[in-house]
Amino acid sequence: MEVTAERVARIPLGNLRVPRAAFAAVWTVAEQRNAAGDQVDWYAGGVGATCRWLAVAVMEGQPGGRALPPAPATRHRTPAYEELIEAEYIAAEQLGRHRPELVVDRPGWCEGIQATLRWTWRGEGPAPFDVQPTRPPAGSHGVHR
After folding, report:
1. Which positions ≥6 away from 133 have C-beta within 8 Å?
2. Is residue 15 part of a domain?
3. Model confidence at 108: pLDDT above 90
4. SS3 for 70?
């Protein structure tokens, strides 16, 4: 998924507790890593899935047209909002214990979700990726790192 200035601007105000530019920079890196290479980066996948859900970023090209992204830990398709984000954070912290197959089959997935929610929602710990937010060039619709 392309991270655009329009998508970032549409993120509900209560869904982030970090600056939008920093969130956009992390989300962009996650999407770039997910699109690159032949080897799956499950950590980046977890970060990207969490960012898409927090941003309530409608996904195009899904069977049936457009769809909301699923919550990263619980997989429900309810749009992210403050109370639900807190519940998702709690579920994510227990994800490896409740779904041990994910730890084996998707190494880094649980950690990517946890790191993203910890940083964006709880304001704890570092960003999932060490990036510096930048402003997009004038007239640009993309968010660049």
Report:
1. 19, 21, 22, 24, 25, 145
2. yes
3. yes
4. coil
Q: 78 in a domain, yes or no?
A: yes
Q: Record the pTM.
A: 0.86
What is the DSSP-derived secondary structure letter of residue 118? I
CB-count exposure of residue 142 (10 Å: 0-12, 13-18, 19+): middle
- Average of pLDDT values for 53-79? 86
Q: Does 31 map to a domain? A: yes
Both tokens assigned to 80: 């992210």
| Domain region containing 89 | 11-122
Check if the beta carbon of residue 23 is closer than 8 Å to that of residue 16: yes
SS3 103: helix
| Cα angle: 115, vertex 116, 121; to 5 degrees | 110
- Please state, in angstroms and rounded to a whole number, the distance separating the CA atoms of residues 86 and 84: 5
What is the total count of domains within the chain? 1
86 vs 61: which has the higher pLDDT: 86
